[in-house]
Amino acid sequence: MTATLVLTAHPGDFVWRAGGAIALATSRGRRVVIGCMSFGERGESASLWRKGYTLDEVKAHRRGEAEQAAKVLGAEIRFFDADDYPLVETPELLRGLIDLYREVQPAVVLTHAAADPYNFDHPFAHAIALKSRILAQAPGVEGPGEVIGAPPVFCFEPHQPEQCGFIPNVLLDITEVWERKTEAMRILAAQKHLHRYYTELGSRRGLQAARNSGPNLGLPNETYAEAYMRLYPQVTRELS
Ligand SMILES: [Zn+2]
């Protein structure tokens, strides 16, 4: 089965930035596996800390939200519990990601963009996602499973793309799964303030998708979309 691997620093990231792509893939019978490197317990759970939760309670709460959101999107989810703020490379995290690549054998990889001056966990997650992808390709790197090929990597949209050098050169029409994305967003009560922002962003990227869709697709203005930045060249036999 064609699989998609989504590698994120924190639980909210896969919902806000790639929930539509995940729901779209699973609605078409594709397997989607999310590798969540931390629970976002320190950096992306401010409302829970203000309520007086302990560290373990924050982690458990975020884990629960992430599992529920993944279920709504039809995806599997694996947690690495590698600590956030700062998220740093450990031998266990690197090993775990290599093993996950080889187990899933992804045809598509989604992860963070290379830069984010507001959140250093995100560029770290980008770097280790690419590093483990390359190591998983090398027969000389030990571990279970077969080596992988060279799946294309799509970076999902950072929260403030203009500050991150993010060029939205891929616009994905997610209109048919928009309701599922909003359902997954509603689960993230710890980050409620982002709901309106990502609803408006979906609509704005949708308008841009319509504007850029050309004569073949001809998308209407009511489209919802997610933006991605493709990292490696697109390989094709025909320009379209
Ligand atoms: Zn994050």
From TrEMBL:
<dbReference type="InterPro" id="IPR003737">
    <property type="entry name" value="GlcNAc_PI_deacetylase-related"/>
</dbReference>
<dbReference type="InterPro" id="IPR024078">
    <property type="entry name" value="LmbE-like_dom_sf"/>
</dbReference>
<dbReference type="GO" id="GO:0016811">
    <property type="term" value="F:hydrolase activity, acting on carbon-nitrogen (but not peptide) bonds, in linear amides"/>
</dbReference>
<dbReference type="GO" id="GO:0016137">
    <property type="term" value="P:glycoside metabolic process"/>
</dbReference>
<keyword id="KW-0862">Zinc</keyword>
<protein>
    <submittedName>
        <fullName>PIG-L family deacetylase</fullName>
    </submittedName>
</protein>
<dbReference type="Pfam" id="PF02585">
    <property type="entry name" value="PIG-L"/>
</dbReference>
